[in-house]
Amino acid sequence: MDALHAKYPFFEGARDAVAGASASLPELVAADAPAVDRARERVERALLEGTVEPEAGAFGGSAVDVDARAELLSYPIARILVSLLDSQPAIEKYAAAEASTALDRLRADLERDDGLRSTPTPTVDLDDVLAEFDLSEAVRAEPTRGSHDPSHYRIAVGPYLRLSSPSWGDSWRLVNRALADGAVRVSREELLEALGAAIEARVREGLPFELEAGEGIAAELESRVSELKRLLSERTYAGPIDIVAPELFPPCMENLIGKAERGVELSGPESFALMAFLVGIGMSPDEVVAFCADTSLDAEGIRYQTEYLADDRGTQYPPPTCETLSNYGICHNEEDHMRVAADPLSYYETRVNDADGDEIVDWREEHGGGVEAESGGEAESGDEAGVDDGAATEAGEPVEK
Ligand code: SF4
């Protein structure tokens, strides 16, 4: 079993590896193989924590040695599980979490120096990933001096439009880009973000599977699906608290905001926890952008994360539990208040309920002007939902995302 397929299970080669596995998926599920448990963990962590990394440790660390076969086979089983949840937001969040985890792994692979590439940990390089998504011809690196990795690339305008979204911010609009010879200039990090969109689309492709409830593999997975639904309903709030009182935020969130205000980059789990909390208390993407204006968090990243966290029914998947945040080193359980609540939103709700309502001033009332100004600016600059008409016409291609 090629561990690389376990690491990037959405690659075409991984599909072939699954097809060539000695046992079929129904057999594995019927036997309650380790891949089934890992699949449940994959979905649970995707929906509740925005990552599919094993709880035991990131793939590529010691966890990779455990069972690459179970890791690989857990991916198609996770896709079946998420289909059985019968929820489009769950599919969106699952695909986003798979893509986010894959991007973290890809960044780590690209950062490895040549010396470390000889370790048993399987790695890919950028060319491998571009080839995987049929982008080898569409992406060209700008020349560099010496042996440094290129800092900028040119991507053909068609794939650029297909793999980016103007909702990521004005800087992604074609009219604001250097465009020459049918190619758009992007930074290396922007290219990785576009690849993240390609991964997300690949994961989402074909979901949900049409499975007859109570029959075959759906019947075998019934208890796992019920377990996931129960967990989700326990973690689903009837509605957002819808009051923004920063002075009542739990210490974990205060610490994350303080860190970002000092200009320190937040890690993936840190920014996920903060965004999920802010959306969970009822803030809109515009409000979160305004709230985080003077921090290391950039507006495009905030919009990307908050828009997939928020759905029509409010935050369906609140921030990770206090226990998980503690494992990530985000929670220090100040004054032992983990006794009070199991997660930051519950803790905040308790503090809001205990506070004198007359004394709470909603941050949005004090800063409404700033948020409105920002929203108004967007309205002026064009349609939020798509590349402005001029850009789309210029490219002659519709925006798919
Ligand atoms: S116990 Fe929970 S709410 Fe309190 S700081 Fe830790 S994660 Fe945050």
Bound heterogens, unique? iron/sulfur cluster
Strand content: under 5%
pLDDT averaged over residues: 81
Major sheet: 4 strands, antiparallel
Number of separate domains: 3
Dominant shape: globular
State the secondary-structure class. mainly alpha
Distance between the termini: 34 Å
Order of helices and strands: HHHHHHHEEHEEHHHHHHHEEHHHH
Ranges where pLDDT stays below 50 over 5 or more residues in a row are 372-401
Report the radius of gyration as a whole number of Å: 22 Å
Strands, count: 6
What share of the residues lie within helices?
40-55%
Q: How large is the count of helical segments?
A: 19
Strand order of the largest sheet: 1-2-4-3
Organism: Halorubrum aquaticum
InterPro entries: DNA_primase_C, DNA_primase_lsu_PriL
Pfam families: DNA_primase_lrg (PF04104), DNA_primase_lrg_N (PF26466)
Cofactor: [4Fe-4S] cluster
Please explain how this structure is put together:
This protein has 401 residues and is mainly α. It is built from 19 helices and six strands. The chain has three domains: 3-118 and 208-229, no CATH class; 126-201, no CATH class; 235-361. The chain has helices at 3-7, 12-19, 25-30, 34-49, 68-84, 88-111, 126-132, 157-163, 188-204, 216-220, 222-234, 251-261, 268-280, 285-291, 299-309, 322-327, 344-354, 363-381, 389-395, and strands at 139-141, 152-156, 179-180, 183-187, 310-311, 314-315. The strands form two sheets. The chain has a four-stranded antiparallel β-sheet. The chain has a two-stranded antiparallel sheet with strand order 5-6. A hairpin with a 2-residue loop joins strand 5 and strand 6. The protein is globular and about 65 Å long. It binds iron/sulfur cluster. Iron/sulfur cluster (SF4) binds at residues 250-252, 322, 325, 331, 333, 337-338, 344, 347. Residues 363-401 are annotated as: Disordered. It comes from Halorubrum aquaticum. Pfam families: DNA_primase_lrg, DNA_primase_lrg_N.
